[in-house]
Amino acid sequence: MNKKEDNFIEESLISDTHLTLRRNLGIIGIALAPLLICLNHFQILPSISHYYYSESNVLFIGLLFAYGLYLFSYRGYKKDKTKLDFINDNWVTNFAGILIIIVAFIPTKADLQLINTYHLFNPPRGHNNNILNTIHLICATGFFLIMAYLSYFRFTRTDNLHESEKERITKKKRNRMYRICAIMVLISLLFILVFEFMITPPFSQCIVLIGEAVALFFFGLAWLVKSKSLAIIKL
């Protein structure tokens, strides 16, 4: 086996690893909310972050840490100075990975009344501190915004100058889906921002959860498209 063949095999293995990584990111994104709800006996809490205080605690922390580590491992497009592009995908995903790990490490606040209302337990890092809660919210929001940014601006890039006509058509379809996913993530965040303060109980109690679940679904879908797992439907 010559050096050229060795390089080809190595590149193929790297490509397969990247596709698997993207697929895992997509699966975790889509499955996170349903899994947390199912493992907590279908109890609906105010937000996904509140499942930190539920029986799904270990799963919640584990999946967020896994997501962060996957993002650290991700390698996307490098910066292209010829197009005034000074952002490396690796920088963006590393930052997103840091944010999601902080979200797992610094939980949302939960006062005793909420814990008693939902029959939750108070784990060691549970708190009712407004400063810590603000850090949690900023990191969670930043994470969602970065996922929307990746989907809209980075996933739609291409560095393949030798694509066939069929590949270009498929790429256009994927780009359309990436942008739809990014827009849906942003709409979900806007939904939370607007309706959290407008709808009266009991519906307001799960507004954040609904918005987060929808956002998770769509950026998970974007990762699945990126992994070519949906090639069967020509995406």
UniProtKB/TrEMBL annotation:
Supply the source organism for this entry: Plebeiibacterium sediminum
By its UniProt entry, which InterPro entries does this protein fall under? 7TM_GPCR_serpentine_rcpt_Srv
Sequence intervals crossing the membrane? 25-45, 51-70, 91-110, 130-155, 176-195, 207-225
Q: Please report the name of this protein according to its UniProt entry.
A: DUF998 domain-containing protein
The answer, when asked if Transmembrane is one of the entry's keywords, is yes
Q: Which UniProt keywords apply?
A: Membrane, Transmembrane, Transmembrane helix
| Cited Pfam families | 7TM_GPCR_Srv
